[in-house]
Structures are given as C-alpha cells and as structure tokens.
Write a structure and sequence with these properties.
Helix content is 32%, strand content 24%. By secondary structure, the protein is α+β, with helices and mostly antiparallel strands. It has a 4-stranded mixed β-sheet, covered by helices on one side. A hairpin with a 2-residue loop joins strand 2 and strand 3. The radius of gyration is 21 Å and the shape is flat.
Length: 389
C-alpha cells in the first residue's frame, strides 16, 4: 500500500459463507489423506448448493482413505460449521464424490527420480507480504475484518440461541494518514440470523464484536455503521448461494493490500506451489519486517512445472528498506531452500493442518504447537540480521 492520505477497504467472509464451506470441505479431504500418508497428492474442488455437495479432483494416496470415510468427514465438517438448516443440513445433504487418480503426466514432472529433485506441481507466481500495521504484521483492514467475524462465530458456537447464523460477511474501511491507519470510516457487517430477530436487534448484537475488535476511538459514526443493509438475511449458506472452492483468494491473503498470484490455496496438497510457495513468501516477508529490515515487504516467487528451484525471487520494500533489495533477495534464497521439497521440509507442511486455514485468512494467525501456521514464525530474524549486517 502507498504512502500518503487515503481510504482503504478489505472484506472477510465467515466459515459459513458458501465458498468458505467449500474451502473447508476441500481442506478436510487434504487432511484426511495427509493423516493417512504425509506424501499423498490431492487436488480437491468442492461445490455446494441446496442440500447437495460434490467433490471433484485428483488424488494419489492410500486405499484406506475410502469414499465413505471422506463423506463422513465432510458431514462432520458441515456440522462443525453449524449447518442444521432445512436447506443445508450436515445429516441429510447428498454428498457425491468424483475424485479420481492423479494424472500420470503431472506426476512424472513433479516426482523426484534419479538425480532429479522433486519439481513444482505447476507454473505460477506467488506473493508474500508483511507490514508493520498490526502486531501480526498484517494490513489492518483485513485483520480487523477477519477478527469481527471470528468474534461473532465464537459467540454463535458458544450460544446458539443468540440468533446468529453461520453465513456472514464483514467489510472495514480505514482512513490512512501519512501511510498509517488512524480510524474506521465505515463498517459493514451482514450476518445470517434467526427469523425472529429484527434488523435493529441484529445491529445491536453485532455492535460489541466490532467495538471489541477496533482500537479505542476508531469506531465509525452511526451513519456509516451498516448491519444487514438489505434488512433481512435468514436464508444463507449454500441454500442461498452456490459455493465453490477457491473463490475467496483475496480474503485468504491480504485483503487487496498486496498482490495475489493466480492460484487459490484450499484443496491443494503442499507439493502445489500455489499454496506452499505463497506460505514461504509470507514467511520470508514477515521475517524481513520482524527483523526491522523494512516497514513493509512484498516478495514474489515464480516457478515452472517440473522444475525444483524458483525462476525468480523479487523483493519490494516500497521505499522503507534498510538494506539493498537485490542483496536481500539473494540472501532470502540462501537462508531458505525454496524448492517444493525444501519449503515443505522447512515449514513442516506434510501434516493434516489445513482445515483450520480455510476461514479467517491463511496469514496473521498464531503458529501452533502441532505445526499449524508454521509460516507465521519469525525464527529467521537473527539469521537475516547477521547475513545483512
């Protein structure tokens, strides 16, 4: 994001949004395969509509992961989100699997053989970003948009009688002065709700989650606090709108504050650089900013299918860097092996850690003891400082 004075907006969607339901389903399939064999290959797409789910894609994994097992896990995921509605119910929805074996032509390019290292699963460009706007080193608008919905979801799970439904969206517009966020100028929250609740009641149910999330004094005025602007949101989720895996890529990353490569994350095992290299780029960018080498940092990586090493490493600190960007790019390629195998090994990605990433963003989340969100660690700070001293 640029310096100067401006308004910037980011949006988030909840775990019950139809597209996020599909992301969760696809990543549930990934986790099932990786739990059975950490070197499984999976590319799984999901479609969800009124009481109907389709799984499609390519897999290579153990026979113990049966169609029946996957369907049971999908039902459990839908139940965990909270769908027990007439138009979309975890127990009664029809679930059809059309998963099939991975293409041999793709496998031969990706697999290691003889002196050939494991190659990238596809060509593409991936971006990582970090900025000193929040303690998580994330852009503030997307960070607050996620947190509003996370807070509402926690309240819904704790008190189903509250009246919130699983489907929700948020949008946060912040005013920037001299390139730094100072306050919200508008907040939009649309949430599915019980039919018995009127618009004003829903507004007051939402308000404390917004106030809790924003810094003190940042709340917008009442005229620009929009809750369910259409006045009614009872029918939601896949019953109200068809969902597909991979349609919320800007929600998944930086809310539009930084570039996004061409690929989605959910449904792809970590040999796919669309996912793993985007995680690596975020990891490197976050460590650059955490090491105080820049106030903000964008990193681009590029790959060719079947080729192990990245074709390029690009670094842009947007005028905030303390070191030469060309040297920084070279050092980043030295402190981390950016081949698909190197990324997975360094970040420990061959684990069933993906269903939890499917809502509220893949970045800005705390690293977890079992390896979840390992790309949020800042364990390269001292090595980078030494290399660039």
């Amino acid at each position: 994001m640029r310096q100067g004075n401006y308004l910037f907006t980011s949006e988030s969607v909840s775990e019950g949004h139809p597209d996020k339901v599909c992301d969760r389903i696809s990543d549930t399939v990934i986790d099932a395969y990786l739990a059975a064999d950490p070197y499984s290959r999976v590319a799984c797409e999901a479609l969800a509509t009124t009481n109907f789910v389709v799984l499609a894609g390519e897999v290579r994994g153990p026979e113990s992961v049966t169609e029946e097992l996957l369907i049971d896990k999908v039902r459990a995921a839908i139940k965990d989100i909270g769908y027990e509605q007439e138009g979309f119910h975890w127990e009664t929805a029809e679930i059809v699997s059309r998963l099939h074996a991975q293409s041999a032509d793709i496998a031969v390019g990706v697999d290691a053989a003889g002196n050939k290292d494991e190659g990238a699963g596809d060509q593409g460009i991936m971006f990582g970003y970090a900025v000193r706007e929040t303690k998580e080193l994330m852009p503030a608008p997307i960070s607050y948009a996620h947190e509003i919905l996370r807070s509402m979801a926690a309240a819904r799970h704790a008190s189903p009688s509250l009246g919130f439904g699983p489907d929700a969206k948020s949008q946060v517009t912040l005013q920037y002065v001299d390139g730094k966020p100072v306050r919200a100028t508008s907040i939009v929250v649309s949430t599915q709700h019980a039919e018995s609740l009127d618009q004003e009641t829903v507004r007051e149910l939402v308000r404390p989650h917004v106030l809790k999330t924003l810094p003190d004094g940042w709340m917008c005025d009442e005229a620009h606090f929009y809750v369910n602007p259409t006045g009614r949101f009872v029918i939601g989720g896949p019953d109200g709108d068809t969902g597909l895996t991979g349609r919320k890529i800007i929600v998944d990353t930086y809310g539009g504050a930084a570039p996004h490569g061409g690929g989605a994350f959910s449904g792809k095992d970590p040999t796919k650089v669309d996912r793993s290299a985007a995680y690596a780029a975020r990891y490197l960018a976050k460590n650059v900013v955490a090491a105080e080498l820049a106030e903000r940092c964008t990193i681009q990586l590029s790959y060719a299918i079947g080729v192990a090493k990245p074709l390029s490493i690009y670094v842009d600190t947007q005028g905030t860097g303390q070191v030469d960007e060309e040297k920084l790019a070279r050092v980043l390629g030295e402190v981390m092996d950016l081949s698909p195998r190197g990324i997975r090994t360094h970040l420990g990605l061959n684990k069933p850690i993906y269903a939890r990433t499917s809502a509220y963003g893949h970045f800005g989340r705390p690293a977890e003891e079992d390896g979840g969100f390992s790309w949020e660690k800042t364990d390269l700070v001292e090595e980078l400082r030494r290399a660039l001293a």
